[in-house]
Amino acid sequence: MRDKKVTINDVARYLGVSKSTVSHALSGKRQISAEVVEKVHKAIRELGYQPNFAAQVMNSHSTGLIGVLVCDMRNAHTIRLIDELAKHLKEANYSMTLCMAGHDEQSGLEMIRKVSNGMFDGILNTLPQISAEKAAEAAGKTPLLTYLRHKKGAIYVDYASGVRQVMEYLFQLGHKKIGHIATRFRQFGEEDPCFTAYRDLMRKQGLFQPELTCLSSGELESGISAAEYLVRAGATAIFACNDETAAGVIQWAHANRIRIPDDLSVVGFDNTQLAKAVYPPLTSVELFVEKIAEHTVKRLLEQIHGDKTTEISPVIITPRMVLRDSTAPASKQHFNKKEKRIS
């Protein structure tokens, strides 16, 4: 039977069941006994049956695919988010296709237009350079949700709460010269909310100094360059915009024989696996990405199915600081030690 294309009718005849039984066993849309489902899957392996994707789409008016637009896959937070999105989409019987669009706005908009052609049942836009309004316009009639920037059933991340936990902890440790590495990507073109909270808290303590802050791309290399700048400015602790940037700070410190945390305390953000992998393990801020991903998928599927009966309430995410070994009390000998090492 492998000399010709095997059809679903061939599988049904082989098993002595109806075509609809085979179809429902494969789709899971109707209750079929576990024994029959097992027999169907065994038969399609033996016969070499491959479902006709085009026919499935025509019959169901659905591809079962969700397009997720990302800039790239270099960031640890993005990787963690994609894993969580894929898990929740799978639970809803959807598969995810990644579309990498880079950081250019026009390239991102062109990518949205290309994939809004019936290929996907819905699109999730995570591109920071493209607003929800521009993304929706480019997608046309294809359901599209812009990550963290949709209004109905929105997600609110209380970044200020996470920053407050870190800063109050560092203040308790005696740190007054706390450097901060902000990112231009967190608030999608607006001021980084973590920087805003950091600046307000430092001003409240009468400790804010512009030279203790810098803006970065959020990548490891930016952490390396920012570390030297901030340490030369006298920072005894550095609070980075994400774990990858914090890892760059730690890498620079190791290369310059600056001990973490004895000579310099370092804190990250996102609490990714990288926070546990670096040495010493990194104090970081848990963002509860799994909860964000679950709510995002629910909201996207509601948009795809046009379900007006189920109201999806907004969700407030309150980050939580996770203590590890990269922070310690400030030392009176800090500046002399570090200035000598990096001179």
Question: Care to describe what's here?
Answer:
This protein has 343 residues and is α/β, with parallel strands linked by helices. The protein has three domains: 8-60, 434 Repressor (Amino-terminal Domain); 65-147, Rossmann fold; 157-287 and 322-342, Rossmann fold, CATH 3.40.50.2300. It has helices at 8-15, 19-27, 34-47, 53-60, 76-91, 105-115, 132-139, 159-172, 193-204, 220-232, 243-255, 273-277, 289-305, 334-342; strands at residues 65-70, 95-100, 122-125, 144-146, 155-157, 178-183, 213-216, 237-240, 265-267, 284-286, 315-317, 320-322. The chain has a four-stranded parallel beta sheet, with helices on both faces. α1 packs across α2, α6 packs parallel to α7 (132-139) and α8 packs parallel to α9. The longest helix has 17 residues, at 289-305. Residues 335-340 have low confidence and may be disordered.
Structural class by secondary-structure content:
alpha/beta
What CATH first level of the largest domain would be assigned? Alpha Beta
* Average pLDDT over all residues: 88
Strand arrangement, major sheet? 2-1-3-4
Tally of strands: 12
Number of helices: 14
Q: Remind me, CATH topology of the largest domain?
A: Rossmann fold
Biggest β-sheet strands, sense, barrel = 4 strands, parallel
CATH architecture of the largest domain: 3-Layer(aba) Sandwich
Q: Whole-Å distance between the termini?
A: 77 Å
N-to-C SSE string, H for helix and E for strand = HHHHEHEHEHEEHEHEHEHEHEHEEH
Spell out the CATH superfamily of the largest domain: Response regulator
| Helix content class | 40-55%
Q: What is the beta-strand fraction?
A: 5-15%
Q: Provide the low-confidence segments as ranges.
A: 335-340
General form: elongated
**What is the number of independent domains?**
3
* CA-atom Rg in angstroms: 25 Å
